[in-house]
Write a structure and sequence with these properties.
Elements (H helix, E strand, L loop, with lengths): L21 E2 L3 E5 L9 E5 L11 H21 L5 E5 L15 E6 L22
Antiparallel strand pairs: 1-2, 2-3, 3-5, 4-5
């Protein structure tokens, strides 16, 4: 069945063409094709929606359940994982390049970057260290 909210050129509107590693009723999970670290996952809604800030409360709850499940799974598979970054880009000026919601879950390990302090603040490097 074709998703009525899909867009032909959207890389996430055809999940049957992707290698899905987990799913819930309204979301699927894939590994990022250009991972920041090993195990970097994307949590993606089946319905086409551009901005994660427009997800419903029910969808946000469902995403959070998937994040918790994936976090435990990844940590069990790789005991070197000691932290995670979780995020999304909302809008062109925030760096969004695919306008179909996708939430990044990025496992972190000791020494994967020289100075991890500031985490996601690193999107503006001059503001990462405080």
């Amino acid at each position: 069945m074709t998703n009525p909210h899909s867009l032909p050129a959207c890389p996430f509107c055809r999940p049957e063409s992707l290698e899905i590693i987990d799913r819930s009723p309204n979301f699927f999970v894939i590994y990022d094709k250009t991972p920041v670290t090993p195990g970097h996952c994307l949590i993606i809604p089946y319905r086409h929606i551009a901005d994660a800030l427009e997800l419903s409360s029910a969808e946000i709850s469902e995403v959070w359940e998937l994040v918790q499940k994936l976090r435990l799974k990844l940590a069990a598979e790789d005991p070197a994982i000691t932290g995670f970054n979780l995020g999304f880009n909302s809008g062109i000026d925030a760096g969004q390049t695919i306008f179909h919601v996708h939430i990044h879950l990025i496992p972190r390990r000791p020494g994967d970057v020289e100075k991890p302090r500031g985490g996601v603040r690193g999107v503006i490097p001059a503001r990462q260290n405080y």
